[in-house]
Amino acid sequence: PAYTQELPSAKVVITEDANADHKVDWQDGAIAYRSIMNNPQGWEKVKDITAYRIAMNFGSQAQNPFLMTLDGIKKINLHT
């Protein structure tokens, strides 16, 4: 064929105590994972567009009353 499909792959990271808590656990694994993880295009914009998705639903029906949705948008804005 004129194109090549991407083959499945796996990555392994062996790490030590990355957060200096004197034990090697899942948190150290998560820190090491950051160096090999796939960052999808546009990942840095998610924090800016979260509020737009809260009130949207299929069929144009909001799951919460408007004021409750607005409160949620304000809270997310304060945390980002």
Automatic annotation (TrEMBL):
InterPro entries associated with the record: Endoa_GalNAc, Gal_mutarotas_3, GH-type_carb-bd
Domain Galactose mutarotase-like fold: 3-26
Pfam family, one: Glyco_hydro_101
Record GO terms (molecular function): carbohydrate binding; endo-alpha-N-acetylgalactosaminidase activity
Taxonomy, superkingdom: Bacteria
Residue ranges of every copy of the Endo-alpha-N-acetylgalactosaminidase domain listed in the record: 27-80
Protein name: Uncharacterized protein
